[in-house]
Amino acid sequence: MPFSADRAEVLGLKALSWLASNDDLLPVFLGSSGASISDLRDRVGDPDFLGAVLDFLLMDDAWVVAFCDSEDVAYASLVEARAMLPGGEQVHWT
After folding, report:
1. The domain containing residue 63 runs over which residues?
2. CA 80, CA 6: separation in Å to the nearest integer?
3. Which InterPro entries has this protein been placed in (predicted)?
4. Does residue 91 fall inside a structural domain?
5. For residue 93, is it within any domain?
């Protein structure tokens, strides 16, 4: 089943929740994104922010595997969900 924007946001919310509960990875996300703990609460409904969370997880295969295994979703789901959120469009350089 293809991802809708709503389904992508739900997966983004799950990813944010997983990330927030990961004591090792959360500081890495906060440091690399410039986000604060209050941003996690304040921007939970922001599709742009959820896209940034997915972008972050997609930077490392081990993070993708850990998240997807914990949520019992296919590994490709993160890429599919990311494509449905703002800024996730495929860039064509030709």
Report:
1. 5-84
2. 12
3. DUF3572
4. no
5. no
pLDDT of residue 94: 58
pLDDT in tens, 7-35: 999 999 999 999 999 999 999 999 999 99
pLDDT per position as a tens digit, 33-78 = 999 999 999 999 999 999 999 999 999 999 999 999 999 999 999 9
Sequence letter at residue 85:
L
Residue type, 73: V
Cβ atoms of 78 and 58 closer than 8 Å? yes
The SS3 call for residue 67 is helix
Q: Is residue 92 part of a domain?
A: no
Lookup result for tokens 């295969």: 61
The answer as to whether 53 is a domain residue is yes
Provide the domain count of the chain: 1
Cα 89 from chain centroid (whole Å): 15
Count the residues in the chain. 94
